[in-house]
Specification:
The chain is mainly alpha-helical and 87 residues long. The protein is 76% helix and 11% strand.
């Protein structure tokens, strides 16, 4: 029985590590996109990939979307850290 509980604990730790890794990578990618958007002129064309199609997007909207994603991912990382400590 003890080994079964230990195995479940290891699986839980592994799952949480995978989630943190995914969110950390996404956070880095989104921070890079935000930096690249900051380098562009206000009148630059920005496109968003939606499925197989590139759709033109307003610069302000693109900035807002990326900032919102960064905020969400950061919150998920904090939440995941709290869940790991609690368990």
């Amino acid at each position: 029985m003890a080994s079964s509980a230990g195995l479940r604990e290891l699986q839980h730790i592994s799952k949480n590590h995978q989630i943190r890794k995914k969110y950390t990578i996404q956070l880095g990618e989104n921070e890079l996109v935000l930096k690249e958007l900051d380098l562009l002129n206000e009148d630059a064309n920005v496109y968003k990939l939606i499925g197989p199609v590139l759709v033109k997007q307003d610069m302000a909207e693109a900035n807002a979307n990326v900032k919102k994603r960064i905020e969400y991912i950061s919150a998920e990382l904090v939440h995941n850290k709290v869940v790991v400590r609690w368990n």
